[in-house]
Amino acid sequence: MSFDNYHKVVEENDTVILYLGYENMHSIKVRGGHTFQTKYGALRHSDLLGKPYGSKIQCPKGYLYVLHPTPELWTQNLPHRTQILYSTDISIVTFQLDVRPGSVVVESGTGSGSLSHALIRSLLPSGHLHTFEFHKERAEKAEQEFKEHGLESYVTVNHRDVCQNGFDLEHVADAVFLDLPVPWEALPSAKTALKKEGGRICSFSPCIEQVQRTCEVLTELGFEDISTMECLVRNFDVRTVNLPIPDLGGGDSIETSSIKKEKNTVDEESDKKQEIVKSNADGDKSSAENAKQTFDFIGKKEDKNFYFKSGVAPTQMPGHTGYLTFATLYPA
Ligand code: SAM
């Protein structure tokens, strides 16, 4: 199996994503002779072998799709051993750290390997990820997963306490990422790990006091361009706007008055929807709940053949799980 090299058909030992719906996905390792229980009944792994990725697979009571894994799908389906970073934050991290093919990146802690998979995809085919984790089993499990996913040549997993013992890397990294409870303790060693020509650093922290402390130490160490970001999820409110019907003279025909009546109903529904979105935004519901409620509301109206469409699919990916602090180290 290889996450880095897309292949067309499902093979023995591939890690695949079973897609039964946006909110119902599973990752499995395909092994002939095994079965996997889905809400549509038992799926024999052997039914997947040789099928092109993207195929519709019939189960006893319904169907699913078999998908090639990507870092984003892996993030949504990986076994959680820790809290993880989601693709919303990950996209900012890879962009702001300027991770690209050939980059050398240092990361700690490895955790469940969610961010690691995305970093590796961005630095392929010639870069390298050095990831550090002080929990022995997590480090071993991550190493095993990278191997199963065909990524072992792009990543070195180190079992190490980076706050106590540092990274033991000198001037090799283009970027460093920290997801640690006390990131400031690892900053001096992170600075040494960055290349002499400088680089970027990011620290992820859920609480603002950690951010303040990190910023202070970054400043003491000579980092510049320090900025903290948070990624907030916002739902797009997509609507078709009905323009007023022009008065072309000659009075209302039966046809135009019926269009007007329907338009008025549509406008009323649209206003009601706006109110729901606003009251949800004012309240303390999560964005996912807000989006779902909006979507359900519109879905019902669509069933009654209203001729406008609106709403977006429910948002599943959490935003703002923490603050992302970025900084640059310039050459001395
Ligand atoms: N970013 C990861 C992901 O997306 O899957 C999740 C990281 S998890 C929140 C934090 C990890 O840091 C934990 O697995 C923890 O064991 C590890 N950790 C905490 N302190 C550490 C230290 N001093 N040295 C190395 N790893 C550490």
Automatic annotation (TrEMBL):
Every tRNA (adenine(58)-N(1))-methyltransferase catalytic subunit TRM61 C-terminal domain range: 62-328
GO molecular function annotations of the record: tRNA (adenine(58)-N1)-methyltransferase activity
Record's catalysed reaction(s): an adenosine in mRNA + S-adenosyl-L-methionine = an N(1)-methyladenosine in mRNA + S-adenosyl-L-homocysteine + H(+); adenosine(58) in tRNA + S-adenosyl-L-methionine = N(1)-methyladenosine(58) in tRNA + S-adenosyl-L-homocysteine + H(+)
Keywords for the protein's UniProt record, in alphabetical order: Methyltransferase, Nucleus, S-adenosyl-L-methionine, Transferase, tRNA processing
Cellular component, GO annotation: nucleus; tRNA (m1A) methyltransferase complex
Top-rank taxon, per record: Eukaryota
Protein name per UniProt: tRNA (adenine(58)-N(1))-methyltransferase catalytic subunit TRMT61A
Organism from which the protein derives: Pinctada imbricata (Atlantic pearl-oyster)
